[in-house]
């Protein structure tokens, strides 16, 4: 058995690393490159029912320790991604990938999930409850009653494996509250975290914001979000029922970062900002780096250390 293999919802992946939604996964060409890569799976750009152009540019900006973006859900529409994952499933039976959906209303999410339920698709769906960048549309993940309503209505009819992509939480009481809701549903996984939303980056030289949408407000990803991501992965791993796997996303640049996410409880990790900067070779590098760490420590599978972070109370 491959050292980096992982299992979620009874599906096995050869490698526990993959792209994060939105990064190099919007076109067929992007997705084909991920299929050919060392990544253990891919996730498609979050889809809306119809194609969207997204927000005006500049809408992404590189930072010394990460990135800020306000893309505004540019995507080719659900049909495009659903056709892609179904065709891929026919070509490569036995593999599982992630289809991300992010309706800007509950009605849109339900309509998309009805279409997926009725289709031949058998892979994972990642329901994005945390897009921070659509003007006038708050992040569902910060409205706990709304999360309850959405999941009640989804699980009324949806029977295929489904997970949710969450925003970062910043209070332990919020970990308790969101976990108490998520534990009521047959979720296959929870993905934590999306970007840290509605941050503001200022260029002191030009005395201007660095991205155009929403007056410069956007989501932060990359190195600077790692401690927040680890806190959320660990916070959820300690509170969710064991049937719900954790996908850890946020601040991964190297094998040590992957190792830390897994120690905090992640069964799979996703890489966003750094995959955007580095492209496909990233996955080979991370696999080598994580394998080296595991060999030095005498671990032969990620289950040997997953969730086993120690505290001073242990
Ligand atoms: O497209 C975006 O602006 C976007 C989305 Br949907 C998301 O979930 N997270 C993010 O940082 N950007």
From TrEMBL:
Reactions performed catalytically: (S)-dihydroorotate + fumarate = orotate + succinate
InterPro entries: Aldolase_TIM (IPR013785), DHO_dehydrogenase (IPR050074), DHOD_1A (IPR033886), Dihydro_DH_chainA_dom2 (IPR023359), Dihydroorotate_DH_1_2 (IPR012135), Dihydroorotate_DH_cat (IPR005720), Dihydroorotate_DH_CS (IPR001295)
Location of the Dihydroorotate dehydrogenase catalytic domain: 3-294
Top-level taxon in the UniProt lineage: Bacteria
Cofactors (names): FMN
Subcellular localization(s) per the UniProt record: Cytoplasm
Pathway(s) of this molecule: Pyrimidine metabolism; UMP biosynthesis via de novo pathway
PROSITE patterns: DHODEHASE_1, DHODEHASE_2
Statement: the UniProt record of this protein carries the keyword Metal-binding: no
Keywords (A to Z) from UniProt: Cytoplasm, Flavoprotein, FMN, Oxidoreductase, Pyrimidine biosynthesis
A single GO molecular function term of this UniProt record: dihydroorotate dehydrogenase (fumarate) activity
Enzyme Commission designation: 1.3.98.1
Recorded family membership: Belongs to the dihydroorotate dehydrogenase family. Type 1 subfamily.
PANTHER family per UniProt: DIHYDROOROTATE DEHYDROGENASE (FUMARATE), DIHYDROOROTATE DEHYDROGENASE (QUINONE), MITOCHONDRIAL-RELATED
Assembly and binders: Homodimer.
Protein name: dihydroorotate oxidase (fumarate)
Record lineage: Bacteria, Bacillati, Bacillota, Bacilli, Lactobacillales
């Amino acid at each position: 058995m491959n050292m980096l293999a992982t299992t979620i919802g009874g599906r096995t992946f050869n490698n526990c690393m993959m792209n994060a939604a939105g990064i190099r996964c919007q076109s067929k060409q992007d997705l084909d490159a991920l299929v050919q890569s060392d990544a253990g799976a891919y996730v498609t750009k979050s889809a809306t029912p119809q194609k969207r152009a997204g927000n005006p540019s500049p809408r992404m900006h590189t930072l010394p320790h990460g990135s800020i973006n306000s893309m505004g859900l540019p995507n080719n529409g659900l049909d495009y991604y659903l056709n892609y994952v179904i065709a891929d499933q026919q070509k490569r039976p036995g593999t599982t990938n992630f289809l991300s959906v992010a309706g800007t209303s509950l009605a849109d999410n339900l309509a998309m999930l009805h279409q997926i339920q009725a289709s031949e698709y058998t892979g994972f769906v990642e329901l994005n409850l945390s897009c921070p960048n659509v003007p006038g549309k708050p992040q569902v993940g910060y409205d706990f009653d709304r999360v309850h309503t959405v999941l009640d209505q989804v699980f009324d009819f949806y029977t295929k494996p489904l997970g949710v992509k969450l925003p970062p939480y910043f209070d332990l009481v919020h970990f308790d509250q969101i976990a108490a809701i998520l534990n009521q549903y047959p979720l296959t996984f929870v993905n934590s975290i999306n970007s840290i939303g509605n941050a503001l980056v200022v260029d002191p030289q030009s005395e201007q914001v660095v991205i155009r949408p929403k007056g410069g407000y956007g989501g932060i990803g990359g190195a600077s979000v790692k401690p927040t991501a680890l806190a959320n992965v660990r916070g959820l791993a300690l509170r969710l029922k064991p049937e719900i796997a954790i996908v850890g996303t946020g601040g991964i640049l190297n094998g040590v970062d992957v190792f830390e996410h897994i120690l905090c409880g992640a069964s799979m990790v996703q890489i966003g900002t750094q995959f955007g900067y580095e492209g496909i070779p990233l996955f080979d590098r991370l696999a080598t780096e994580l394998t080296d760490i595991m060999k030095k420590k005498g671990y032969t599978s990620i289950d040997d250390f997953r969730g086993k972070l120690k505290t001073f109370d242990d």
